[in-house]
Specification:
Layout lengths: L4 E2 L7 E5 L5 E5 L4 H10 L6 E5 L5 H12 L3 E5 L2 E5 L10 H4 L9 H8 L1 E5 L12 H9 L2 E6 L2 E6 L10 E3 L5 H11 L5 E5 L5 H12 L3 E3 L5 E5 L7 E4 L4 H13 L3 E5 L7 H10 L2 E5 L3 E5 L8 E2 L11 H8 L5 E5 L9 H7 L3 E5 L2 E5 L8 E3 L3 H13 L3 E5 L2 H6 L3 H7 L3 E5 L6 E2 L3 H8 L1
Helix pairs in contact: 1-2, 1-7, 4-6, 5-6, 6-7, 8-10, 8-12, 10-12
The protein binds ligand EPZ.
The site of ligand EPZ has 26 residues, from helix 1, helix 5, helix 6 and helix 12.
Length: 450
């Protein structure tokens, strides 16, 4: 292995991966990021204590803690649990510098407005994968009687009249938006009368949020179906709740097994949350065995080209598109991956091409011609799931891969590299190395990763 050097941005850790190692053993799956974020926002509904278990340790969760704390909540993390005291909300304006970094922070608008009668939330703005508008959230709140003005980049919502309650109504979502469904469902829990959300998102995280709200005393029917009915109540009460396992983390590790031709088992999982992912893996070749009620095992097999189209749940999840694209770069034949949910979620393609992948992008379609092998390379991550795809490609590639901008990965995965190391992946996180880093000689390199 020749000496190589790579300049990394000041104070940025990098991931160094040596590919083609077999993995084996069992991976413990953490709590679902996208469930935990929505449920933490939902804690604003409760003028009492919320005890949350199975909360993953990752950057976006810490950011949500900061946002809720800035609104007056008292939050203490104890291992994988959060103790949230939401008796006193002292602020109704969320800080722009935090909201702009994480779209999920916008989800506080529904609970804050319905609890306090007013909420000023900065527009989250776009991100790497798309414009990420919030028009469906805003229009739904207006339909429930809120006045909403968008001024200087801040969504200012308030409830007119003296009784300070939103009014239940029928809302049709133009698109089954996960966030809009969650915002409006939370807003409706304390509204006057009945709210019906039609064309609602059916994602498991929506069901988890509904179960959390019901555990606080909310009256919600139909979560997980296209029509959710909420009968408003006057107030909610303290709750103890455990977050479901993360289906996207689980899917990512299933691909890790497939792409390294390794047998891996994952625990805990909820198999029905992985139905489309498991079906696609089986179509590509690997076997997937469900063991008991909450364990799944992947058994590798030769990879066959397969087409994928991302869709709202129960369709194939957009959050697994990048990871499957990495896998399909090594599948024999031509695959077509179509991204229908976000308008700019193909930024991992350029980095995969640098590893030797044969991919052509035409609009929302990527045409992938399988190659026998990928080659390690220095890469730059662009967004959360793209980062995961690059890690997976690095695990399969010949030689060394270095991935910069790990903050994307750390936003959404709870110790992904540590979990991979535990099942035999040859990788390490190199802490901030200054502006110029001459990687060690091959002897030192191989010694470090053995
Ligand atoms: C949630 O984002 C997830 N994030 C995303 O996961 C996930 O990719 C997405 O749902 C789709 O499943 C969290 O739950 C925190 P959407 P969300 O509203 O709610 C358009 C990850 O990697 N839209 O369902 O923001 C939107 O532009 C992240 O973990 C509007 O047009 O997604 C997009 O094209 C990435 N107007 C489509 O709907 C709106 O008001 C789906 O977005 C809202 C959304």
């Amino acid at each position: 292995m020749t000496q190589s050097s790579i300049s990394v941005e000041e104070n940025q850790a990098v991931l160094e991966i040596y590919g083609r190692s077999k993995l084996s053993g069992e991976v413990v799956i953490s709590g679902a990021k996208n469930s935990a974020l929505a449920i933490m926002a939902g804690a604003l509904l409760c003028p009492g204590d919320c005890h949350l278990d199975n909360v993953p340790s990752l950057a976006d969760i810490e950011k949500m803690v900061q946002i809720l704390t800035s609104l007056g909540l008292e939050i203490v993390r104890k291992g994988q649990s959060l103790e949230i005291k939401a008796q006193n909300i002292t602020e109704v304006q969320a800080p722009y510098d935090l909201v702009s970094q994480m779209r999920a922070s916008f989800f506080v608008i529904g609970p804050l407005l319905t609890r306090m009668g007013v909420a000023h939330i900065p527009l989250p703005g776009g991100c790497a994968i798309g414009a990420r508008p919030v028009d469906l959230h805003v229009r739904g709140l207006q339909a429930m009687g809120a006045e909403v003005i968008i001024e200087h980049g801040v969504v200012q919502a308030y409830i007119k009249g003296n009784n300070k309650r939103l009014v239940g109504t029928k809302i049709y979502l133009d698109y089954p938006s996960v966030g809009a469904t969650e915002t409006l469902m939370m807003a409706a829990t304390l509204a006057e009368g009945e709210t019906i959300i039609e064309n609602a998102a059916c994602e498991p995280e929506v069901i988890d949020l509904a179960n959390f709200c019901a555990a606080m005393g909310a009256n919600i029917q139909g979560a997980g179906t296209k029509t959710i009915t909420v009968s408003g109540v006057h107030s909610l009460h303290s709750v103890k709740y455990s977050i479901i396992p993360d289906r996207i983390e689980a899917g990512t590790f299933l691909v890790a097994g497939a792409i390294t031709e390794s047998e891996l088992s994952l625990f805990p999982v909820i198999p029905e949350h992985l139905a489309s992912v498991i079906a696609k893996l089986k179509a590509i070749g690997p076997k997937v065995v469900i063991e008991g009620v909450n364990r799944v095992r992947i058994i590798p097999a030769p990879l066959k080209a397969t087409d994928i189209e991302t869709l709202p749940f129960p369709g194939f999840p957009t959050d697994m598109q990048a990871q499957f694209m990495a896998l399909l770069t090594l599948a024999e034949g031509n695959s077509i991956v179509t991204e229908t949910v976000f308008e700019n979620r193909m930024r991992h393609v350029a980095e995969l091409q640098r590893m030797g992948a044969n991919i052509r992008v035409k609009g929302s379609h990527a045409i992938i011609q399988g190659v026998p092998c990928l080659g390690g390379a220095p890469l730059i991550a662009t967004d959360l799931r793209a980062s995961a795809a690059l890690v997976l490609a690095g695990l399969a590639a010949e030689g060394k891969t270095i991935i910069q901008s790990l903050h994307h990965l750390d936003r959404g995965y709870d110790n992904l590299d540590g979990k991979l190391q535990k099942v035999g992946a040859r990788l390490r996180r190199i802490p901030s190395v200054g502006t110029e880093n001459q990687l060690m000689s091959s002897e030192e390199d191989s010694a470090l990763v053995r």
